[in-house]
Amino acid sequence: MTFGEKLKSLRGQNGITQDELAEKLYVTRTAVSKWENDRGLPTIDTLKQIAEFFGVTLDELVSDDDVRSARLADERAAKRFRIPALVCLAAAFALAFLTAYVSKWCSLPLIACTGGFICCALLSRPAYKRRASRENAAAYIISRIAIAAIFLLAATTLLIKLF
User: What is the pTM of this model?
Assistant: First the structure.
C-alpha cells in the first residue's frame, strides 16, 4: 500500500475531509490531494504531524515495503540498459580498431557508440545509487569530468583524422 493510499484510508476511517486535514496541518487542500494521489510526499515535519494526528507511527505511515518495492522497480528498470551499454562498448572498441587501422570514416560511428555507451552506462545504475554517489561530491565531479574527457577525446580524434 502506498503512502497516498494509507493517508486516504486513515482520513476516511476518521471521517475527515481533505480540507479539514489541510487546515490541521497548515497546508493547502491541493497538497493533501497530491499526497493521496501519490504525486508527491510531504516534508518529514508534516509526516510527523500526520502520524501524530492519526495516532500511528511513522513506520506504519511510510513502511519499508513501499521503499523496498520502489527500489526493486528501479533496479529492474536500470537492468534494461546494461546489455545495450555492453553492446555499445564492444562496438566502440571494434570501431576504434577500424578507425586506427582501416578507415578514418569509422570515427563517426565510434563517437555515436561512445555516446550511446555513456548514456546507457549512466542509466544502468539504479536511481538511488546515482543519488548516493552524488553525496560524495569529489567522486561525482571526477566521474563527470572523466566522461566529458572521453567524449571530447573521441570527437577531437575524429576531427584530426578527417582533416
Answer: 0.45
